[in-house]
Amino acid sequence: MSPTTGIIVPHPELASRIESICEELEREDWFSIIPRLWPNVKYVYSIMTGSMQPYLNKLRHYAGNLPLVSADYGSTESWIGVNVEPSSPPEKVTFAVIPTFSYFEFIPLHRSKPQTNDDFIEDDPVPLSQVKIGQEYEIILTTFTGLYRYRLGDVVEVIGFHKKTPKLNFICRRKLILTVNIDKNTEKDLHHANVAKRPGHYVIYWEIKGDVEEKVLGECCREMDASFVDHGYVVSRKTNSIGPLELCIVERGTFKKILEHFIGNGAALSQFKTPRCTSNQVLLRILNVCTMKRFYSTTYG
């Protein structure tokens, strides 16, 4: 854009330089593309916790040696905490609660017994000043904009204090505890579904850009199955109380169809989040109709 007229004008020299850089980067699998195209960048600032954590390795690949700074902890309803140690690796980031953002309460959570259907057993809520290190909680918000004792659904662990305010580590979203038999696996365990058959098993749906050899996909399926280290899951797999993990490769555009389904039923585009775990039969129908290949784990023979 011309600084004097404000009109967009071509820059052949800049375009040629970008093209040359991209040709070189393509041969290197786009390693360090961010600092190569933006040489003055100092760091990458983004959401890198929770459901975004699986993308860290790819982001590091693109960022090269640039520091990765995890954004502060917020939600649609309210900001919650800030990252007071921005130099910490994203995997170890914690968030210090800012008491003036909202009025905060915390529901103490305890892992439920294997035979129960609930993901956690709850105690009575406690105020910000009474939380304990090492305890997991669900956050409750009372906001200045009118929400009263709103259950956020986020499960966090108090890992320390910054001055007198607790520092939180995000664990998972509630009701996303995966369980088929007596196992308890969170989204954090999966990072790494619906019992339609007997024995029940997990079904993972992947939408992949480009072609991948079936041998590689089969190995991915086995590796995912082996990543569930919960004792109940391992025992159940060995005794065939839980069936082999199933990896489904869906056609390009499948998750866009899910977005379109939500938007068509009145959801706001700005608030849409791709479901990580679902038993919604409409969504499952979309996923299954669009499945091109299926792989079953052989981890436990």
TrEMBL record:
GO function term, MF aspect, one: ligase activity
Report whether Ligase shows up as a keyword of the record. yes
> What InterPro entries does the record tag this protein with?
GH3, GH3_C, GH3_M
Establish whether keyword Ligase is in the entry. Answer: yes
Positions of the GH3 middle domain = 96-173
Under Pfam families, the record lists: GH3, GH3_C, GH3_M
Keyword list, A-Z: Ligase
**Domain spans labelled GH3 C-terminal:** 194-281
Similarity comment: family membership: Belongs to the IAA-amido conjugating enzyme family.
Please state what the protein is called. Indole-3-acetic acid-amido synthetase GH3.5
Species, as recorded: Capsicum annuum (Capsicum pepper)
